[in-house]
Design brief:
single chain, alpha/beta, 32 helices, 19 strands
């Protein structure tokens, strides 16, 4: 392999030539290459990507980038270290204030793992702080009370439990471990991980630096872990964290140190290059995030240092699509673990990309996305050396024997997937046993409760309700994570089209919303019958022409039926044309409960239930996702509410089209606070693994209820509802604007991060966030 170019600096050219020919890259060469910019950048990427391609060819998977489908198990947020950029770690006092337990319980661990297995996950990532019992008496007391000698002892027992009950393959990431501790965990985990982060002693030893006061971040300690893992024949994931104050020389030395350890033992199954992202409420909160080009250059140099046969990984949720494409160009071949169920608890403000979207983005770079197991193919090929015989049968059960990647059709299965064996509960009825036993059963497996059980839980009050809300909060925490999300949107009432606003006004409203930082324009309402039959298409097209980047969330099922009748098109034809005109998603409103008898009694002007379901299913079928709603407080029974939720879950299981559920109290009907809390808690439990996001409809609730509902299962605040400057009175909820600063104050009160989201719960571009922050919003 050769390179060409006459304008490249002599030292860079020489270093690139050596790397391209397979020679070892020195610390000096790596330091030089890490500073490449401008015209030399493409030459660096060329060498890195060609090395990667050569390695994939030798491996037998040319053109393939891999990932592992996982569940993330944050066993404890306690740690003895004090890293200045970390938001994962907490203190016992703060955990108690938030109503969080010191450790995940066995029931919680298995419930999350079992749900992940049902969704096709094959990896259980165990993540936790280092040896918290050596700093916190509360942690020591918890371990003593439950019969464990240490946190690592608890992790070992839980890994064995997850393996037995669910068949998921544990990937152990408990921080610094000794050689003997790794050997003790080896029969329960085919792979382990610990980020080297950096070999910079300065960042650990100097006061004020990010690792000062963290005994486990001593580079000598972490390098010994790498050595001990090699001696124990453990496939190890490691890597560097870039942008935490290290120098370019530090990065070069860290990369070469990993290569030298791997040269001695052959055990580093993947090298993660992770970019620093500043977190609120940390000492490093005001530090600048790593520049995308600097990040990509580091990835490319990691490829050159580690060589063609290394697996180089970058987390796909910490960069936007353009940066991800550049990382592929820089030589990565793996996206790491991605979860369809659980949040990234270390980076709660950065959601995992949808797997279909990640596959599409990967295809756009010329590669195919394939699922792998937590242990990489080369170590499976030589399993006698690298994988303990006790865990190998579970590896084999999930393996494609030809590619040694994951068998994507396989499902992890434990010895008893229907119910855990470690808790014995009576099967008596709710009336006989009381609500606490139902709550205990729900903790093990929310899906195991019958509809009548959930109806009983809707009547919870007092201590029972507190226990129910705590469980719902735990389920939310261990799946969608800690972040509270909100979308920057503006409303437009389309009934005023032709009766107060024109299509030109609509374009101006879209322009204004965009300038103010909105990512979504929500349009609802049946357009006047005096307007042409294609008015819905015209309205959508005008918004799209004015602001192509603005997400159009438009037209309720009732509005869609009106358009269908007026145009004479079929459901699918109308919805397909509407999508082509510019509609991205639809509001799933205009229904109270999915019960025709109740509809006729309380909302006869609403669409018939069957027709609403037809429209929603058809919309999902043409790629238009929607919200879902439940209106409660109109005299319906608890059984009616549960039946509605069950019907929504059936639709979701078939289509996957609902983005969130919005439980809306009926207008003008006062209900006691406990009723709202029970509704939100039951929704979280009933829809676990189906509709991920549960919204607090802040416009319909007393302000003092918002925090209890966020603490009882909800994770979303809906929309900001910008009034805007152009015809603000034409918004459906004019005057109800929620400022981003007020929302942040609300979430800070419960120590949870606020995350601005897109309509479909993705990450908005940074410039959109900044535009919103600049807007002066009345509080």
């Amino acid at each position: 392999m050769t390179i060409s170019g006459t304008t490249v600096q002599a030292g860079v050219l020489s270093a690139l030539e050596r790397a391209a020919s397979g020679e070892s890259v020195s610390v000096h060469d790596a330091e030089l290459l890490l500073q490449v910019r401008g015209d030399d950048l493409e030459r660096l990427f060329d060498v890195a990507s060609r090395l990667r391609d050569e390695g994939l060819e030798r491996l037998g998977r040319p053109g393939v980038i891999t990932f592992s489908k996982k569940v993330f198990l944050p066993i404890t947020n306690l740690c003895r270290d004090r890293c200045h950029y970390c938001i994962f770690v907490d203190t016992p006092g703060k955990l108690a204030k938030k109503g969080k337990s010191l450790y995940m319980s066995p029931e919680q661990i298995v419930a999350v793992a079992r749900q992940g297995a049902a969704m096709g996950c094959k990896e259980a990532l165990f993540t936790l702080g280092d040896r918290p019992e050596e700093r916190w008496d509360d942690a020591r007391a918890w371990l003593d009370e439950h019969g464990y000698t240490s946190t690592l002892h608890y992790v070992q027992e839980m890994a064995a439990l997850v393996l037995k009950e669910t068949g998921l393959l544990p990937h152990m990431n408990p921080g610094v471990m000794s050689h003997d501790e790794m050997l003790a965990l080896r029969p329960f985990a085919p792979s382990m991980g610990m980020m080297l982060e950096t070999t910079s002693d300065r960042l650990w030893s100097e006061p004020g630096q990010v690792h000062f006061g963290s005994p486990d971040k001593d580079p000598r300690v972490r390098l010994k872990v790498l050595e001990d893992a090699g001696l124990a024949h453990i496939p190890l994931t490691t890597g560097i964290l870039v942008g935490i104050g290290e120098t370019v020389r530090d990065r070069a030395e860290s990369l070469v140190a990993m290569r030298e350890s791997h040269a001695r033992h052959g055990h580093l199954q993947e090298i993660i290059v992770q970019n620093f992202r500043a977190k609120p409420a940390t000492a490093a909160q005001n530090d600048v995030d790593l520049d995308a080009i600097e990040y990509a250059v580091t990835v490319a140099v990691a490829r050159l240092v580690m060589g063609a046969d290394a697996r180089i990984q970058t987390p796909p949720n910490l960069s936007d699509d353009a940066a991800l494409a550049m990382l592929v160009r820089a030589g990565i071949d793996d996206w790491g673990g991605v979860s369809p169920l659980t949040a990234d608890h270390v980076n709660p403000e950065r959601p995992w990309p949808n797997l279909d979207r990640l596959a599409e983005m990967t295809r756009s770079t010329g590669f195919e996305l394939r699922e792998r197991l937590t242990v990489h193919a080369g170590y499976i090929r030589d399993s006698a050396t690298w994988i303990d015989a006790a865990v190998m049968p579970q590896v084999t059960a999930l393996l494609d024997p030809v590619t040694l990647l994951a068998n994507e059709d396989a499902r992890a299965a434990g010895s008893n997937p229907a119910a855990p064996t470690f808790i014995r509960l009576s099967t008596k009825t709710a009336a006989a046993t009381g609500l606490r036993e139902l709550i205990a059963r729900a903790e093990q497996s929310p899906a195991s409760l019958a509809d009548e059980d959930y109806a009983a839980l809707l009547g919870a009050t007092g201590d029972d309700l507190d226990a129910l809300a705590t469980l719902a909060s735990d389920v939310r925490r261990y799946t969608v994570g800690e972040a509270v999300s909100i979308v920057a949107n503006r409303n437009l009432d389309s009934t005023t089209l032709g009766r107060g606003i024109t299509l030109d006004d609509v374009a101006s409203i879209a322009d204004d919303a965009w300038e103010l930082g909105a990512t979504e324009l929500c349009i609802q309402g049946t357009v006047s019958g005096d307007l042409p039959s294609g008015s819905y298409f015209d309205l959508a097209a005008r918004v799209r022409a004015a602001q192509p980047g603005l997400h159009l969330h438009a037209f309720r099922p009732a509005d869609l039926v009106d358009g269908i009748l007026r145009t004479g098109l079929t459901d699918v034809q109308f919805l397909t044309q509407l999508r082509a005109a510019g509609v991205d998603t639809i509001p799933g409103t205009g229904i109270k409960l999915l019960d025709e008898r109740r509809r006729r009694a309380v909302a006869p002007d609403d669409l018939p239930v069957d027709r609403w379901i037809e429209i929603v299913r058809a919309a999902h079928g043409v790629g238009l996702r929607s919200t879902a709603v439940m209106v409660y407080g109109l005299g319906e029974s608890a059984a009616d509410r549960v039946a509605h939720l069950r019907a929504l879950r059936v639709i979701q299981d078939d289509t996957g089209g609902f983005t969130e559920l919005v439980p809306m109290p009926a207008i003008g009907h006062r209900m006691p606070p406990h009723e709202h809390r029970a509704v939100h808690a039951v929704i979280r439990l009933m829809l676990q693994g189906s509709i991920d996001h549960l919204q607090v409809p802040w416009t319909r609730l007393d302000p003092e209820l918002l925090i209890p509902l966020l603490q009882g299962g909800a994770d979303d605040l809906g929309g900001i509802l910008l009034d805007g400057r152009v015809l603000p009175q034409h918004g459906a909820e004019f005057g109800r604007e929620l400022g981003i600063a007020r929302a942040r104050t609300l979430t800070q009160a419960i120590s949870r991060p606020l995350r601005q989201r897109t309509t479909t719960y993705g990450e908005p571009p940074e410039e959109r966030k900044q535009a919103l922050e600049r807007k002066p919003i009345p509080e």
